[in-house]
Amino acid sequence: MQAPVISTTPFDGQKPGTSGLRKKVTTFQQPHYLENFVQAIFDTQTKLNGGILALGGDGRFYNREAIQIILRMAAANGVARVLVGQGGILSTPAASCIIRKYQTQGGIILSASHNPGGPDEDFGIKFNIDAGGPAPESVTNAIYERTRSIDQYRIIDADPVDLDQVGESRLGAMIVQVIDPVADYAELMSSLFDFEAIQQLFNSGHFRMRFDAMHAVTGPYAIEILEHRLGAEPGTVMNGVPLEDFGGGHPDPNLAHAQALVALTQGPDGLDFGAASDGDGDRNMVLGRDFFVTPSDSLAVLAANAQIAPGYKRGIAGVARSMPTSQAADRVAEAIGVNCFETPTGWKFFGNLLDAGKITLCGEESFGTGSDHVREKDGLWAVLFWLNLLAVKRQSVGEIVRDHWRRFGRNYYTRHDYEGIDSEAAEGLVNHLRILLPSLPGQQLGAFKVAFADDFAYTDPVDGSVAEQQGIRIGFECGSRIVLRLSGTGTQGATLRVYIEQYEADSAGHDRPVQEALAPLILIARELAQIEARTGRTEPDVMT
Ligand code: VG1
Ligand code: CO
Known about the structure:
binds cobalt (II) ion; binds alpha-D-glucose-1-phosphate-6-vanadate; 7-stranded antiparallel β-sheet; 544 residues; 32% helix; alpha/beta
């Protein structure tokens, strides 16, 4: 076998967004498109030559084909060994676990996460560094720069590798090791949480739960851990078979897209606990009976109670949240005397803080929660943390969160998404706000007085790198906030995200419907940003 060099020309727009390069499947299927991006990884990440690469994806349409191409390119580019999940499957947190455990020089994860899958839907690819986390901007920028001048790639000629049998084979001079995608991850989870206590909870006969894998990657993980190891009754995991098109749904665990699960938790016969995860297994939604836990509150509750879980019994070093995430975790950090960091959107910004031991827990409002156990957000980890909490506290989900609000106050929170809007209109809206920013501080908007207004910039406290223009922040004197930014994960037009937060200290005011409590701020945001005039939209597509 030899490694032919194939001539190619650059494609426009191979710039990774919030989490990797995401495009329509049909874009990735163009000759040389995937190959160019993968060669740019090998050209810039030179440690992979002679090193080990982890490889897997969320099982969506085009996953297997892409894996075969990447394997043949890895062999041509001198990779010594590839650890690939059986069937081409690795959840995002499991891939991070594998990279760390086997000290690989990095990993390639194939996923468009919560975006729909199928021949006309989305595909994605991202590179994770040897610490296990998403590549920082210095690396993604280098990869992108390389794609702009690429003129050749290397790929060997070979038959497809059998991805379905665990074991080793050779591809040219490279070893392909097909691994059980679940085992290492399940072992890590059992080292962090009190599996005995959770088992007793399941055996008590007083606890009913469902986990909705949304026909995405977490099915096999959840069935092994919840049903086989923890003894939850068979059928606890719904939609547990991964499908290439996720059964036609949006594998996005939120109130809009996991409606069947939400319905099961409602009413007097509602489940005690409902949970769901997304396409690649890094997001989570947590529900109690008639109770939705916002991801921002979930991070705060876990931070306040971390010591109940064996893996965190020594306490936490600090917490971090993405800028649009509510400030609920800040209050916990203050109360327990640890630092709270505010980072731009995207998990890559937590990596340095975790590596430096500055934080133990971190989270995003977009249903992402995680810790220093891996370098990705981790859906099942969050669900197990909640189960551990429920098993120890013997309270309902709603009681735990209400107790939390009584102690720390409640941060009412919502996010409104306006999807598929015209890209130019979206840019215009953000530019309009940027021009408005300097005039806002001191202004009275309805009942709210503006304390600060800026376009969020972040200086990494570990390596000093700077990320600018990370979202418009308008902060009010009472602590309320309006945040606006454009999504960096979409594949069509632009998505405007509007985040609204308002703090309520008094427990007499903790039971209001969220959209009603936030209505005045929502109106201020719409007017300030001229949403209707600039986008033609009167209502958001999704509210979470
Ligand atoms: C969204 C979320 C962000 C998250 C990212 C990747 O990005 O807002 O918090 O880190 O998705 O999550 P954006 O740029 O569309 O707002 V995942 O589970 O899609 O990898
Ligand atoms: Co995801």
